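Form 12-C: Joint structure prediction
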Amino acid sequence: MENNNSHKEYKFSDILAIPAIRDRFEKVRKYFFLRESTYDMSNRCNIRCEGCYYFAGEKQFAEENLNVHDWQQLMEAEKERGITFVVLAGAESALVPDLCKACFDVIPLGCIATNGLIPLAEEIDYRIHISVWGNDETSLKIRKAKNMLARQIENYKNDARAIWVYTFTSKNIEEAKEVTEMLAADGLQVTFNMFSAPVGYDGHLRHTAKTLARTRAVMGELLAEFPETVIFSPYNIVAHTHEQGLHDLFSCSYPRMNPSTDIGLGRSFRQYRTDLKWDRAAACCVPDTDCDDCRHYAAGSAVVTARMYRHANNPESFSAWLDYVDTYLAVWVKGYEKSKNLCTEMIDPPALT
Amino acid sequence: MTTDSTQTISRIAEIIINELKLEDVTPETFDADLDLVDEVGIDSMDLATIALVLRDEYGIRIDEDDYPKLTTVRIIAEYISSKLADDK
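Section 2 - Result
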């Protein structure tokens, strides 16, 4: 869609009168019922990655609760208060499959973040996000694990639950094509994440203006070259490679940055630690991230998605937002199929136009 | 209560009923003081959709920061009246 009418004032009904936009809006709004919370499942991991958000801050010291019944009760309580989507994350969920199954049995929509080295049983039918931080040479250096990609592919090839999440650091930008080619060769899917520094991190993986710009270019090339493999959109690229972080661009709506408890994430989102406790002051999708540097794919999935109103000013902006939401759903909800992007240009977020 | 405010309340209720596809309720029977979040189950995305329809209908902008305040149909009607008065 061409960006030729961003200065004209549109009614929402005018925007929805465009059939492709109307259809896409109707497609994504069926999922407006999703209410997420996230859960640290284990305080252990089978690898140790530089810059890992889990092993920053206090949450790593929470005791593990390995009692399946306690987790079932927690999930029942979560369901009761309206949570419809769970994200099972740090440190490594695959170490506690019984707990993952307990969650799935109560709340059947969700996602598991894993390094992919330990396969999860098919009966845990959540979307599975497999983290990849570069080629295997880089993974060995940063994550201290050998042959990561080959082992991940071996574990999750032909598994409809799986999508790889390539985290762009400042050091692995040029390896993304090699990894994408390998995944494409096996008919697998990948989406993109941005390394976002944990609080206090002063290592070499942090992005600079130069690496953000280079990442933007590479993401664009990969999206164009591998449209069946790369689950992303031009607007995702803009939102996640902008010099301003997600909070500056979209005003983060997670409790940690949002005092309102009236509606939306500020009201319903919780981030449980392994001891099944949570702290509103620390609650966001990737706790202990430096908010000024946050460009996490998980954060954007909630923060950008929540800003529908400000994108509904013209067809281009709303199309870009719809592409973002369509991408978010395809990445996070098993069985949801991504459609062709409506907005093929990299347009600025509304606050900056 | 003025005729104008009654009409506004009825129209807002109608929009909410249409957008959320609520059943067993009409604009006339919709309780204007019902808490839209706690009692109707509206969340932020629903409210954003309703806000956009109201923007079309009344030609006003609804600040995203104001969403948390818009907890009942009556409060929304008062908010719209206030915005319209500010624009005069």
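Section 3 - Comments
Residues 11 and 313 of chain A are 7 Å apart (CA to CA). Strands of chain A lie at 36-40, 85-89, 110-114, 127-132, 162-168, 190-194, 271-272.
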